[in-house]
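FYI - complex with zinc ion, inputs then prediction.
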Amino acid sequence: MGRRQLLLIPSLVLLAALLSAACFNDSVGPDAPAEPSAASDPSATPPTAPDGQPDSGQPQGTGAGLAASADAQTDADAAPPADNTTASTQEDPPTDPPTAPRAPPVPPLQAVLFVQPAIVTPGQVFLVAIDTVNATAASVALDGQFVSLAREGDRFYAILPVPFQTEPGILPLVIAVADLNGDLALQQLVQIEVQDGDFLVESVTIDTTLSRLFDPEVVEEDRALRAAVQSVRTPLRMWQGYFRLPTEGVISSTFGLLRSYNGAEPTDFHSGLDFAGPLGTDILAANAGIVAWTGETERRGRGVIIDHGQGVFSSYWHMANVATAPGTPVAAGAVIGRVGNTGLSTGPHLHWELTVYGVPVDPLPWLRELEVPDPLAVFDPLQAVNQPAQASGG
Ligand SMILES: [Zn+2]
């Protein structure tokens, strides 16, 4: 029951494939052009490839994604032994005696993989963490998207969302790690189990004067704006620990309720937490970050979106007024606005939403210390998905 429990058991692992650099080069070459955006982005910030990647969970596709990010990170990290080796190999091949050994073997990659938890419900998050020696990059492919894992010390990790619409069943992940040459040295398919969220229906009565807010154009304007803001992601993790309550007041609606408006069939779900409270109550940044957007949409009213880094954003809606501006660094608890009743709202309240890589997740666990996996937690290596893996290094 403890949060540290490592639930990913070996029986869930379908395939453990260790590929040498040579294998990778052979298999991935034709696919490499399919990942131009990740390779060409000089900032190396986008942890995901563009939406709509056609093939999810295909080992070769993952290899291509990794190759792109590995190249970028290898340049940035500039590991001296690898660079020197590469330079001498590429620039002066004809002059050296043919008998001299040209390239020392690539130091072997070691990697221990953790996924926690292995059983999730829609709206939850899970952690993928890899402790490595001699690695330069790591990525995970999930549902057609590639995410480059962040690095802190010898750990690569990402916190990933399970979308609300996910059907119960098995969710496959393909995890890949690059060695000091930036070549794929470890690739593994891991499965986690998605259980039924069993969400309830909430009936909401909306005055007919607000019916315009259900106009598809109004809905799309709001959706597109939020998607655009949250597609620009700070790779550095700014949030730490658990999130704080964003305002006083009682929680009047929770995440995942299926919304039935005026008795109609539910067509939507509630994507955040609602806090009912008096008009003008302070709204606080729930964790450290940078204000990514302030403004107003017809459907959600006045709002603030905060970038917390590594794909995590919090947003605050229906505000009476905004008390911050885009680009402002905020600490947890900073006042960013006040409770209002703007947009699709039936009374003064704050709609507070948390998204991970653009996917709304249940904010409640993030408010309670230790319920969201700690990216830097100490794990038990005996419980790891795979034991330390050795790459051939050629
Ligand atoms: Zn709400």
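The two ends are 43 Å apart (CA to CA). Residues 205 and 244 are 30 Å apart (CA to CA).
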